[in-house]
Amino acid sequence: MLMLVALTGRYSDLRKGLSTLKTSLGNVEAYVYEFKLDAGWLLQNVKTVTEIELQPHTVYKDAVAALLYGLGYVEINGIATEVPIVPINQRTTGVLQASVAQSLGMSTGVDVTIIKQIGGYRADILGVGRGGVILMGEVKSVKD
Amino acid sequence: MGTIISRFKTLESWGTASGEYVAFMSLVFGGVGSVGKEGSNAVGSAWATPVNLKELSIPSPVSSAAPPFFVYSLFNPDDGRAMVWVFKLPTAVFEKGGLNYGRLAILLRTVHEQAFRQFRGEGERIRWDEVYRLGDKLRERLSADRIRYGDSGAVLDIFLKMNDVSEQGV
Fold first, then answer.
1. Closest partner residue to A3 among B10, B48, B69, by Cβ?
2. Low-confidence residues of chain A, pLDDT below 70?
3. For chain B, which residues score pLDDT lower than 50?
4. d(Cα A2, Cα A30) in Å, to the nearest integer?
5. B48 and B93 in one domain?
6. Are B7 and A103 inside 8 Å of each other by CB?
7. Smallest Cβ distance to B71: which of A56, A104, A135?
8. Burial of A28 (C-beta count, 10 Å sphere; 0-12/13-18/19+)
9. Chain B closest-CA separation from residue A45 CA (Å)
């Protein structure tokens, strides 16, 4: 799906800018990108071929993942869309940590990242960049 | 084969608590993975990518020493316009080296409000300085990764060829 989205959006002009977001915790310098993607066309084609009805949200999340890859923020083997950050209690943390470590052939004592759900915001992990930098984020419809 | 089965068992064991750990699995599976049973917070990552365990970058625990990027995106399904804000989490959201979720929530609320205004063409000015084509950026990176991954990067030919065929058809 991500590849399909990337192909659909490849002719889109991508504008890049810089903006200062003023917050009570200080100013945040953000890179801003703008593009267009005809999700309606894509959704209809996916439905025709696969009979699967996707939400626009899914398409745009994949589009953002493709964009982050194209711009170098995330590694190709670190694209991880739809990875929600969920509350994890101490027990599941231990199980997951051991499980991941075993899967990777690492010591079960390896440190792993825990990110709680953030009140009012349902952030996801959008990917992992070079050197292991995590990209957390949220993709929202302006109509939500 | 035993390793593969082990990884599938790992996926299964995550069940309803996927979380960011699936990012690890996404790495292990080269970006192709799906976790989820009914009611679970599932994972979908669908780019056919090279698999090379030596290339894995294991994410560090989020801390002030390794602050993550935050990506905030808004889209309008009616006209297809999307905007994406990318920034590094400021040090002010950390406390004793770890994330302070209360502060992070405050930060994100502000970011959402300002981003929403900017999406509507209001609020803080954006200094636009570059325009390029999304497909060009993707091709550049895919071509580089195709070389970087050698034989295991052959899967990327699918995308590159599809892109070439489409280009010729335009």
1. B48
2. 1-3, 77-78, 80-125, 132
3. 1, 3-5, 7-23, 25-46, 169-170
4. 25
5. no
6. yes
7. A135
8. buried
9. 16
Look at residue B104 and tell me if it is in a domain. yes
Cross-chain Cβ contact B43/A80 below 8 Å: yes
- Cα B158-B130-A17 angle, rounded to 5 deg: 105
Please give the tally of structural domains in chain B. 3
Question: What pLDDT does residue A144 have?
Answer: 76
Coil vs helix vs strand at A137: strand
Nearest C-alpha of chain A: how many angstroms from B25?
8
The ipTM (two decimal places) reads 0.80
What is the rounded CA–CA span in Å between residue A57 and residue A60?
Answer: 5
C-beta of residue A79 within 8 angstroms of C-beta of residue A129: no
Interface size A-B, in CB pairs within 8 Å, comes to: 361
Record: contact A34-B82, CB cut-off 8 A: yes
Chain A residues within 8 A of B85 when measuring between CB atoms:
19, 21, 30-32
User: Can you give the pLDDT at residue B108?
Assistant: 86
* B98 assigned to some structural domain: yes
Q: Please state the three-class secondary structure of A84-116 as a single string.
A: ECCCCCHHHHHHHHHHHHHHCCCCCCCCCCCCC
Residue A117 DSSP code: P
Range of the domain at B87: 69-119
The CA-CA-CA angle for residues B159, A2, B41, to 5°, reads 150
Is residue B61 domain-resident? no
B60 in a structural domain: no
Phi, psi (rounded to 5 degrees) for B17:
-125, 75
